[in-house]
């Protein structure tokens, strides 16, 4: 969740009689025209321009500019990451009562970044920001009380500060307060919590929508309602949240809260799979293998299982290996040409061992090299292992063979 961007107005330095007249500290809300180019450049990730702009404003005492310079050094944005410098800028802004900077300075003390870890200092600065109503700081303070970091564990304080942040729509606070209530701690006021989550979700917050769907799906603190769960997962999915896309796909796949619709399930699995979600790649791969909700395609199935296998999905690895063992040389060739590295690797194995073809180590090396070029680690090992058995002349012959093979295919 992004912080609200505040802006300050800068006083210009006056030059009189050759002397610099120092500006007064900049007050909140005074320099939107001056800081706007800085904020615009930062939002557009033009960090070089943003840095130059913030440097000038910070020198004039802008707490907002000082805070953003701290962020840039903290997050490695347009400058080399330097936590000590980040802390220095956060402190300058925090000393001007800039709430986000106070919170971030507290976080640096909490995590021991750029300063020695000091939980008492962390609590001091985060408390200052929380007292100013900053939701993120209220959440952080609630978590410090929850884990007894720098303060005594105090469930009343946990609920107080998480509640304040939750009431402002801070989804992390809403989620952790739900966990507290679910575990039987605090007042267990699920009714009030649900109102806050609903309010945040209805404003279009994708995290709140996904969280609200989870609450209804699990039925924790509310009557279990798969229909409501599906509606809220759908809203979050439409905003591009890949986990919600996967979850609504599961609901269409299983017919929970919605009519069982394999085509819709496949559609949502694909959206999540395209964002790199391993389980979605695996599920969609299975659907292509079965022709469920999509046209049956062994190659589309293998491509998706290959993507999931790269991320160490055990089910995908097992199913892909099973498929590869059942394919003919022609089918493996087709799969390889579709840049499925495991297919080329399998062709290498077959030509190395003579399984279904005449054993030919040069062709085996060629296929291992094709697979290795696509990044398949097992093929890289095999390529290097076999390559050492050949002379330089023989390796050139394999290169020629590869060029001819690719021309023919």
Model description:
- By secondary structure, the protein is mainly α.
- The protein has a domain of 96 residues: Serine Threonine Protein Phosphatase 5, Tetratricopeptide repeat.
- 69% of the residues lie in helices and 1% in strands.
- The chain is globular and about 75 Å long.
- 45% of the residues are buried.
- The N terminus is likely disordered.
Secondary structure: elements and pairs:
Layout: E1 14-16, E2 19-21, H1 32-43, H2 47-59, H3 63-75, H4 83-94, H5 99-111, H6 119-131, H7 135-147, H8 155-167, H9 171-182, H10 190-202, H11 206-218, H12 226-238, H13 242-254, H14 262-274, H15 278-290, H16 298-310, H17 314-326, H18 329-337, H19 341-353, H20 361-373, H21 377-387, H22 392-408
Helix pairs in contact: 1-2, 2-3, 3-4, 4-5, 5-6, 6-7, 7-8, 8-9, 9-10, 10-11, 11-12, 12-13, 13-14, 14-15, 15-16, 16-17, 18-19, 19-20, 20-21, 20-22
Strand order, sheet with most strands = 1-2
Largest sheet: 2 strands, antiparallel
Radius of gyration: 29 Å
Helix content: 55-70%
Number of helices: 22
